[in-house]
Design a protein that fits this description.
With 345 residues, this protein is an alpha/beta fold. It has a single domain, classed as TIM Barrel, CATH 3.20.20.140. It has 16 helices and seven strands. A seven-stranded parallel beta sheet has the order 1-2-3-4-5-6-7. The chain binds zinc ion. The site of zinc ion (ZN) has 6 residues, from strand 1.
Length: 345
């Protein structure tokens, strides 16, 4: 019988975590109280909400909940708290490197504009890195629902802060809206500025959206990308190019992309040689954090400890961490695997 090591002790990198969505539920309740915000029932229930984002109404409902949570983040101290707690949760789950994704536009009105908003976030990340020892950086993400010119502005801003902790540029929200190529200029600005391109694709729409991310945005990582599993040629292309897919199994099930955890095509991607970085996406709404994603791979997809170690290595290799950080994490992965597994209970 396979003996299981603790996945929360497996060193790994976390490459898909949204800013507001990283919040602890208890923190949301406290902030809502602080500002007198009445939260929708779905955000105060003990169980995560059942969403069906595969239709537009379901996605809209998800966005409404997300907006309600975001409206509770108002002051720099809230930002600092959120960043610190996201890091603490990650450390608890064995993460040695966290790339958190944020669209500073959402916080700009309350914090005095785009630039102050991003600076407050980056300062908070700096402080958190010093206090927790966790390697942490920022992806600036544009919103697909907004005008491509807004995305260009954000890309320029992101590039300006490349030496202050911004490592990548993303594109989030409803894949069914607009075309990836509408955002090609923004991504060109980001890439030319040395940022890695990590747009969302292949979540709500099929393999074509992943191809668009590769062809039009020259993505070096894909947010989700799971629907690539429907196209063997695309899988081969992702594997050949070493494009890491930031796969978020619990999110996929919570949003109805797949019915059950066992339906998320982790095995298909893994066997095709597509590098993956498991991520929690929005733990606030989906009810599970980083280590739980590795637990899903073990429990529903039969990943052995050696295979889980390989998933962790893929997350580290796909990250923007400096080489010395990668080396340290990779040797930590080897040590995790080399240690004797505890006796089965
Ligand atoms: Zn996401």
């Amino acid at each position: 019988m396979e003996r299981a090591r603790d996945v929360s002790e497996l060193p790994k990198a976390h490459l898909h975590l949204h800013f507001t969505g990283s919040m602890r539920p208890s923190t949301l309740l406290e902030l809502a109280d602080k500002y007198g915000v009445r939260l929708p029932d779905a955000l105060t229930a003990a169980e995560p909400p059942k969403l069906r984002a595969t239709d537009e109404r379901g996605w809209f409902r998800f966005q409404r909940l997300y907006d309600a949570a975001r409206s509770c983040i108002r002051e720099p101290e809230d930002i600092r708290r959120l960043v610190r707690e996201a890091a603490e949760e990650d450390v608890r789950d064995g993460s040695g490197w966290l790339e958190i994704q944020v669209d500073p536009t959402s916080y700009a009105p309350r914090l005095g504009g785009l630039i102050p908003a991003l600076e407050i976030i980056l300062d908070a990340v700096d402080t958190t890195v010093r206090e927790t020892g966790l390697g942490m950086r920022v992806l600036v993400a544009a919103n697909r629902m907004k005008h491509p010119l807004d995305a260009r502005t954000l890309a320029r801003l992101a590039v300006r802060y490349a030496d202050r902790g911004v490592v990548g540029f993303g594109l989030s929200n409803d894949e069914r809206r607009g075309m990836a190529r509408d955002f090609d200029r923004a991504f060109a600005i980001a890439r030319e500025g040395g940022l890695l391109a990590a747009p969302h694709g292949g979540e709500l729409t099929g393999p074509a959206s992943v191809r668009d991310c590769l062809d039009d945005l020259h993505a070096s990582r894909i947010g989700h990308g799971v629907r690539a599993a429907e196209d063997p040629r695309l899988l081969k292309r992702l594997a050949d190019r070493g494009v890491t897919c930031e796969v978020c199994p619990a999110s996929n099930v919570a949003l109805g992309v797949y019915e059950k955890p066992e339906d998320v095509p982790l095995r298909t991607l893994f066997e095709a040689g597509v590098p993956m970085a498991l991520g929690a996406d929005d733990p606030l709404l989906f009810g599970s954090r980083l280590a739980a994603q590795y637990e899903i791979a073990r429990r529903y997809h039969g990943f052995t400890d050696a295979e889980l170690a390989e998933l962790a290595r893929q997350s580290v290799r796909g990250s923007a961490a400096p080489q010395d950080v990668k080396d340290k994490l990779l040797s930590g992965v080897d040590a995790w695997l080399a240690a004797p597994a505890p006796a089965a209970a």
